[in-house]
Fold these 2 entries.
Entry 1:
Amino acid sequence: MPPQIPHPEPGTPDLGGPLRYLWWLVRCQPWRALRGSLLGTAWMVGLSVRPFLISRAVDDGLRAGNVRALAAWVAAIVAAGLGLAWLGIMRHRTMTFIREDAKARSAALVLRQLARIGAVLRRRAVAGEVATVGGSDIDWTAQVLTLTGPGVGAVVGYAVVAVVLWSISPLLALCVLLGVPAVGLVVGPLLRRLDGAESVYRQQQGELTARSGDIVAGLRVLAGVGGRGLFARRYAARSRDLLAEGYRVGAVNSWIDAAIVAVPGLFLAAVVWLGARMTATGEISVGQLVAVYGYVATLVVPVWFLLEGSHQFIRGRVAARRIIALLALTPDDVGGPGPGAVPGARRPEPEPEPVPSHPADLHDPVTGLTVHAGWLTGVAADDPADAVALADRLGRYVVSDVTWGGRPLSARPLDEVRARVLVAEHDSYLFAGTLREILCTRPGTGDERIAEALRAASAEDVTDALPAGLDTSVGGRARTLSGGQRQRIRLARALLAEPEVLILVDPTSAVDAHTEGRIAERLRTARTRRTTVLIATSPLLLGRADTVAHLHAGRVVATGTHLDMLDRDPGYRALVDRGSADDPTAPHRVRP
Amino acid sequence: MNGLPVADRGTVRRALRGLIRRDRRAVTLLLALHGAAAIAGLAPPWLLGAIVDRVGAGAGVATVDRLALAIGGAVVAQALLSRYAQYAGHRFGERAVAQLREEFVRSTLRLPVSVVERAGAGDLATRSSVDVATVGTTVRDVVPTIVISAVQLALLFGAIFLLHPLLGLAALVGLPSIWLVTRWYLRRATPAYLAEGAAAADLTEALTSTAEGARTVEALRLADDRIVYGTARIDRLWRARRATLTLRTVFFTVVEASYPLPVAAVLLVGGFLLQAGMVPLGAVVAAALYLQQAIEPLDRLLQWTEQAQRGFASFARVLGVGLVPPEPPGRASPPRGERLVVRDARFSYPDGKDVLHGIDLEVSPGERLAVVGPSGAGKSTLARLLAGIDAPRRGVVSIGGCPVTDLDPAERRRRIALVTQEHHVFIGSLRDNLAFAAPDASDERMRSALATVGADWSARLPDGLDTPLGDGARQLDSAEAQQLALARLVLADPHTLILDEATAALDPTTARRTERALAALLAGRTVIAIAHRLNTAHDADRVAVLEGGRITEIGSHDDLVRAGGSYAALWRSWHAEPRDETTAGPGPRATSPRPR
């Protein structure tokens, strides 16, 4: 039966270790796994039916010259072949279902973890790891589950052949039973060496691919500045290194492959030799000798499965470990009461305090800044790092002593803080989708509201220029839009979210002065009577604020209206009015 | 959007033949070795047939011992031969792959920027990662496997024909159904597997973008949206995988059901021949065993054919990059002088609308011109025309009397540099990131170039110029990356600089520092700065206001302010001077709420 994918709920995985995680993936689909084992076993055993039937056709039909018996055995060979084909495809389907179920389950788990864990991911810079997990680890982990079908089948198939051989000759059977571990012992260490040689190669290959991707990404820079020849030479040099490494891997690889052919082959020769002697002395029939040959030849299949399986197992275990590491990440501690926070979970949310259910002032003791409810507050920081840290504290992305309506911000349930306070960074992420999907982060946002927000962000031209307007799809990070367009779309998105407190960090840094002036004007109207913090140094924006705070060396050194501040605070004037004639530090040019 | 070209079948075949011809000796050697190995592999069933015959004729243990020893010898010989055959094949594959990827990178580097931009960087990126890798696996693993399997099959069937032609004919039963179902399968498999691959890549993209945008997900509470989005991708991948599974179900069922048919036919025909006394029993036994032995190479051959077909498609895409005509070499004689002249330049993007409607502009050597205007006015388009990246639809852009697009690309880069807010840090050391702008620059010059643009951080790097940057090594923030880009320019030393909002992506303080540093770079050069900060305009010799694809005002800052046009209005609001227009709406204080 095909599994139900996507899973409505992927379940709670066992993160106690890679093996336990793998076992959990099996336990999620016990009946399918059992079916896989049975089909895998039946198929593997079925492989040895044909040699038996051929041997009977030789003994009873050909040697005896009995046409009827020959026809009967030949019919049996065709029937058995059809049955085997059916078993083989059912096995493949069931195993595919088992692997796909595991992949979809892992993907769903990783997806939920990534979506819910939040800001910690950026700090840990795990995007690259996620690409590895999503791109290959999930697949490799699922591949291990193949062991539940053909893996089990290989062991059983092997045993069955041994039993059949026992009925022909105990001595031959003994040979087979001892021969298997021997094959494993010879090939096992080689396999590990293969892994080592390949890993270096794969890594170098990955680096080389990254380099060609790097060249593609930087093509415009190279076109502007030159240096293409240098990059071609540098790439070629790396490519040659990989070539040498490839030769080395090839040398090892080919020996291993030869051993994989030779070891079972020699084993077969030994068994045939014994069998042939027995035939010569009349202990077994010619047909039985042919059957023995066929049995041992079919044993190559389970041997191959077991060798391949152990290879996959090694790889899958490493992959599962990486998945577990990602699933075990915990969110940042952003404060909140409750002693003895349990690792692996957010701190238990406190009982909601009775305040503030209505708009209230935010106060940051570190800078001394007070954000009045309902005001448009401008913050101009000498050091942009101070501004970023301030936004992090006000938005509770770090532990701080910020108060909201006089009570600690960290005492509120985090979800409520996120719902009511929005820190909109100038580089916040734009996901792939239509513009409408990007803009509407709240359900049920009508086109009218979207149009208003786009107007406030002076971004009407962005949608007007696109072929399908709001329904135009843009790729991840909206790379097809210009920097200024992206920034205005971000601003419109933040406005549409309608948070009670909106903290805008450099919302117009990539926008030209004409547009910035328009945004400054419309932003006021869009946020009338709603708390808004504007972290910027543009006079066009700050001129529109109810009050402006100047942040110097991490503290608020002056507050007032923009015009007052220009008069009173020379530092502020220098900060926002850079380039003006009365700024002595500005690069002033004498014009003719 | 014009995609990059894809090579046609003929070109791909020629390229494949070229690969083989270039390494003809290695190919001959590996084919000979594989053939020999396959012949050694034929020996055991034949020897077993001999044992059957001799024992039937009453031979003793000594004969059996000799024949069994020969089987062992054949196995060892086969293993050794196939080892060297594989090694030769592997080396050939590695060489071919190295050649292909280097050729691909060379072709990529030759691509004109306008072509890349039209095609979209995504296409090229996919070719450089997915397609080059697919071709690599195909050449390194798939083609050798197919060659080996084909050689083995040919020898096995040949051996059966040698035993008796009628046995050989009987062995061919079953091949027609396999051939038909393979054709059916191959016609459908490649698109289905490509769809599966695309769906898998989409899911990975959903996961990585969720990780990259994790803070945004948290801030805007998009977690549920992302889960819905990702779950839809999981669903799509599952559908794609079921489609390919259905194809395999049909394919493998027919193929596997065809396997017993030749065995049955050989036994029946063998029984008839045996009774007629035309073949010995051993020959029939050997033929049946050969057929049993043929299953494995046939399986491999069929399994890898689809992969080979896909490799063929990827190869066509990889070769396609080399089909783009490179930037034409310069047609014009080197320009005399550096005077930049634009005459009635009009430009439209392929979708038709004119972006620039007749621009006339002259910039003298050493002059600084600032271009301001609202977004969408065509400022960046003008910058690209000036830099010679695009040619005007009508009119001309010339430097020293010579159209910029007619200049030799290298010559043009030496004279005119376009700096945008887009920057890129290459994987490699800091030195690697600078050296390509001026290959002979000394470390001292590099350090002073970095100092010129105010990249103080570079002096604090642990390994100085040798510090690795990018991709897993030290990551530069956008300010540092932009300073690095500017330092490259100091080294490249072009006469004319076109700055398209070069500092727009920087935070204001860094932008200020960088702009100050830029002043040092700009000294003595012709500078055209597309500006969104008015102070840049204020510092320029002349300011051009671009609105709706036309230059509406041009002149010195003071002149324009005096003239009282749109620039003057902007300047006043920037300076927070009291507004004289009444259209600007109520002043900030008028509407400011007093909640308490």
Note: The first strand of chain A starts at residue 362 and ends at 364.
Entry 2:
Amino acid sequence: MDETLAKKLRILADAAKYDASCASSGAPKRVAGKDGLGSTTGAGICHAYTPDGRCISLLKILLTNYCLFDCAYCVNRRSSNVRRAKFTVDEVVTLTVEFYKRNYIEGLFLSSGIIKSPDHTMELLTRVAKTLRREHGFRGYIHLKSIPEASPWLIEEAGLYADRLSINLELPTEASLERLAPEKDGASIQGAMEQIGSRIAEAKAERRRFSPAGQSTQVIVGADATSDEALIRKSAHLYGTFGLKRVYYSAFSPIPDGSTILPLKAPPLQREHRLYQADWLIRYYEFSPDDVADATEDGMFALDVDPKLAWALKNRHRFPVDVNRADREMLLRVPGLGARAVDKILKARRHTSLRLDDVARLTSGLKRARPFLIAADYRPTALTDRLDLRARLAEPAAQLSLF
Amino acid sequence: MRDTGASGELAPLTLSLSEREVTRAVSLRPGADLEGFRAAVRALVAEGVPPERVVWSAAADSACLFGAEAPAASDAPVALPRAAAALVPMVVPHRDPERYALLYALIWRIRAGERDLLEIASDPLVHRLNGMRKAIQRDLHKMHAFLRFRRVPEAGTERFVAWFEPEHHILEAAAPFFVDRFRSLAWTILTPEGSARWDGEALRFGPPGRREDVPPGDGFEAGWRDYYESTFNPARTNLRAMRAEMPKKYWHNMPETAAIPALIRQASSRTAAMIEREPQMPTKRQPARALAAMADQDPASLDALNGIIRRSEPLVPGATQAVLGEGPVGAAIAFVGEQPGDQEDRQGRPFVGPAGQLLSRAMAEAGIDRSACYLTNAVKHFKFEERGKRRIHQKPTAGEVSHYRWWLDRELDFVAPKLVVALGATAVLALTGKAIPITRARGPFRFERLDNRFQGFITVHPSYLLRLPDEAKQEAYETFVGDLRRVEALGRELAG
């Protein structure tokens, strides 16, 4: 690989890393054609992990980090003094194909700064995807960032080649957008999400291929004053209204050449973690946004206990729950029991009566679950009501943040 | 409640052994010997040998056991519930020497009446086997993820070669993934226990390889390491999470991991530098002109819009060309049809086929000058099904109509007609976003959609007239001409 290309790669990978999304999941299973390259497995594969614990699944790069927008939180805003570079379409295609052949990646996640115009930028992004699919028979994963300011037909063309489209909301409120991202407009972002959402739904109904792995978005945590509760309510709205597959939460992180209007201190990474946990409660644990709000203190999640445990501690009158009798919804509320463990419990108890030892073989979270459940040979007695229960179950001071 | 714990109490099946104290020794080939295990199970079940009387051995350690003999071969297949049949091949590759014994114990209990045993994940035996299955799945997953190919030039072409050390005997189970993914490449995977080789046609398993058989580097490895370093965010360092997912034992075969020590060493100083650095003034001028130009991307004229449409590809492949609208900008009346047909697709003009000719005739009879009107279609590309030499028109789906709607909206913006005539249900769908039956809505109609508001008129598509039986044609045609007369009058009224 020649040095010019390597240099561009360093700049444009560095510029893309603040996007938390890395998933290569959700695409229908495909295998390479006779002369083609690439497959998708459904669940996605992480090919490596960097020392920040994050997965490398896709080649995540920007087409260019030149940008006409001036979003304060972004390392690539036009007023930032970072080094700039621009790939050609062919360079991105070559990198993707050669990395893919060596089994480094699952595919490509391509985004870009806005150059010339949103339409011009969107056309370039789509051209990369189209070249990969058409000229290289590439059946690996492609995630394209959509530019909400681009003309609607261009966003729709992208969906013909991409497995997933995403538009980053970045800031959850209109006021924050106005202050921190002057060129962006909440209405056009939501309009584009709605447009993509209905195209995906129609294509599914008509069995056509259009962004089959759905759409996702990212919000930045801690760059403005939005509370956890407001973030989760926003996500629930996005999942419900536009059929989003994922909302990513990205704790605002110090960037080289940061802007003066950003807060000085990054939020604890634990906050991001709690938001993901709450997000899962909404998607997989049948919690309503009100339930999740109930797990907060003044709209914020505690950092020392997870949201599900926080909810249980506040709703002790609903516990303990009998693992041999309770319905699925209530079992899902037991701290320490994951959705998979609950399904195993439901299956096993059709054939046998579960004792505490049995439950221990079905979950790795028994320590947390114990005060909240009843088994054939076990009752928590007074444990559920102990005043120091929270202290007994809280996690030791988080090691997630080293700084 | 059944006792799910002990397997030794299942006496009835052991009766066939009578009183003889029989021990059976099964010797399987090293690694994952699924075939051998299946044959042994058939033989043991046929003979009725309970699990506690079987001694299993695999690999070179198959020391002879006194008094034990191999079971007599049997062809009788052993029926198992689907879940159990699926579990066996997922456990056989496990390194644990007890794997065959545990699987046979499971099979024995299932056959002794515990048909749903696998549903009881809390049972100690099931729990242990599930754990082994999970270990195999993880090992397979890590092999698919962490194996790295290096390119080797080979007689005018290229081959990709990798060295990998799986934890379990999974080479044969892991290989099909690489076939699916790298079908058009030639590749070889070497492991300490065996090798897999793909030449584009067939997958072959061979003898073990050595690490030295793989070249020491690859032209893209430095680039890959650059990428690895650049995508790492030092402000989020979390080594525990990295090691949990990418245990150290894999590192020595992954070229990018050479970068890890330096990345960790520099992480805190890099982060501190970012935080302490005073915000800088932008060194570049504010690009006011570029910013103004950025907002100015919408097509400025019908010609510009048509250029975009012409360059785009059909949503459904097949059409020769996009068929654009035709007629003067500012026309008082615009007609919107469904999609181009066979003739339109060949000629690149709207309403020139049989239905278009019928429309022209009806317009003339109603006193409408076709050349003064704007004619276009809801969908701009012909969609068809090939039957022999004929291309049979296919109705566009609702999704296709909405995909093309953006263009129709802009097109009508530019033309700015006083009256928009929807010919048929697809045009109505495009103009209203709703499926409205023509029979109910036929006549004047107000189209309101997004920013567009048009006085409209709904009637049938002329191709509908062509499909009617002969005896109904004349009357329907006259009704259609009647509609067009009202259109003519409305158009005149609105223009005046």
Note: The longest helix of chain B spans residues 470-495.
